[in-house]
Amino acid sequence: MSTPSFAIGIAGGTGAGKTTVARTVADTVGEAVTRIPLDNYYEDLSHLAFEEREEINYDHPDAFEWELLREQLETLLSGRSIEMPQYDFEVHNRTDERVTVEPSDIIVLEGILALHDEVIRELLDLRVYVMTDADVRILRRIERDVIERGRDLEGVIDQYLETVKPMHERFVAPTKKQADVIIPEGANRMALDLLIEKVQAELPDDSPRSDAPDRELSFTDQSTD
Ligand SMILES: Nc1ncnc2c1ncn2[C@@H]1O[C@H](COP(=O)(O)OP(=O)(O)O)[C@@H](O)[C@H]1O
Ligand SMILES: Nc1ccn([C@@H]2O[C@H](COP(=O)(O)O)[C@@H](O)[C@H]2O)c(=O)n1
Questions:
Q1: What is the pTM of this model?
Q2: Interstrand relation of 93-101 and 82-88 (parallel, antiparallel or unpaired)
Q3: 12 lines ligand 1 (CB under 6 A)
Q4: ipTM here
């Protein structure tokens, strides 16, 4: 167990490529990187019926349990393990499962509002915003939500127009100003190489290093998060 030396936040709109960027960094650098998906910190809505949970605005900051995220991030950064909640998009709720996450040298927090909360921003050493055009993002989202999140086309479009798009404009896009680095067009090889180089430079000398060659960029099933 180590005390993390570097924390990165990766924000951006839905479908921008945040998970792909975070996963490529983690896969390339190896076990020194721990990914924290912000989605796991959606509020526990067990007290609501499924039909009520379907109506929630999941793109508003109030949908997240910020206090728990702050507390768990601080715990990890102080070198102690956490019991991270897990999220199930198909039922719009946390699962009963918690996963033990040990602190590692590099912590990567990724999610639409990863740069929204001031306390969390202060805990981050590098703030990244992944910027991808809205038309590309909605096309990716339709495909992903239908295939991986149990949604139908009409529902994805309604949700996008009613909450995802307006909340993106109100809360997500403005966090671009908080970023140290903006990655255009999602995961692009040059940007990823620079990010990976930076992460590797921040690794302490005794950190486990991956001997795997640089990963090819692949845009496949993301459902294992
Ligand atoms: N640069 C890219 N080019 C093509 N497809 C991509 C790219 N980045 C991500 N994708 C694909 O788009 C979808 C959404 O990407 P993901 O990384 O999950 O976005 P986010 O985490 O921002 O919602 C996934 O199916 C992924 O494989
Ligand atoms: N029950 C839920 C919870 C969240 N969402 C949507 O997920 C998006 C964030 O995840 P990304 O991987 O796309 O960054 C967000 O835009 C929420 O609308 C959902 O549909 N259902």
A1: 0.94
A2: antiparallel
A3: yes
A4: 0.97
